[in-house]
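sorry for the late reply, my laptop died twice this morning and i had to redo everyting from scratch. anyway the thing you sent over, i finally got around to it. pasting the sequence first so we're on the same page, its 223 residues, then the predicted structure underneath. double check i copied it right bc i was rushing
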Amino acid sequence: MKKVGILGGMGPEATAQFYLEIVRIFQQRYGAKYDSDYPEMIILNLPLSDVVEEKGSAEQIIKLLQQGVKKLEQAGADFIAIPCNTVMTFLPQMQEAVSVPFVSIVEETATFVKKRGFTQVGIVATQMTLRSGIYSKTIGQILLEPSEEQKSLITKIIMAVLAGGKKDEDRKILQEIIQDLRIRGAETIILGCTELPLLFTDENTIDTIKVLADAVVREAIDI
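ok and here's the structure:
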């Protein structure tokens, strides 16, 4: 199997959940039992400047991301996956730094949406992710975004999850925002920040952690 490079730490708990999801897929779908049933995986926990509240400059963030993907390439990764939606804004700059390919959480989610033929899709994500347009460019006009007030609330919820908080109050607010998107016509909701599935997910949401994990397994075994 191919050697998997994972650029994680954005945030650390989401990275851990992503790794566990890959393990579960191998167990449940391919009957993995022995350690040798899994691919070699290199996980680099990158202490990146905060991209949720946008604390660091774009130049600083790009430099750190490029250093991170270079380390994975030097360690022998055959491809790289990043369980973070927001930093995919800088995918072109990361790809410039290495020759190995990326499995993009955004592209894989867009493919997931298109294959299922949804005509209206809601998204909850960081303000930077939404402002960058990385999802609207790949999914198109069928994408519904929260209001500006709701986006601010989502950012606060994400920051709380990053700090280990999973409050019922925050879960309720997130559910209310998701319900509002459904009332506006969304047939499903993209959880476009990998912290959000740690707080809430159901059968009518798209967990981007799971979407990326599925793609990584597919790429690792080359099917």
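The chain has two domains: 4-105+210-221, 106-207.
thats about all i looked at so far, will dig more tmrw
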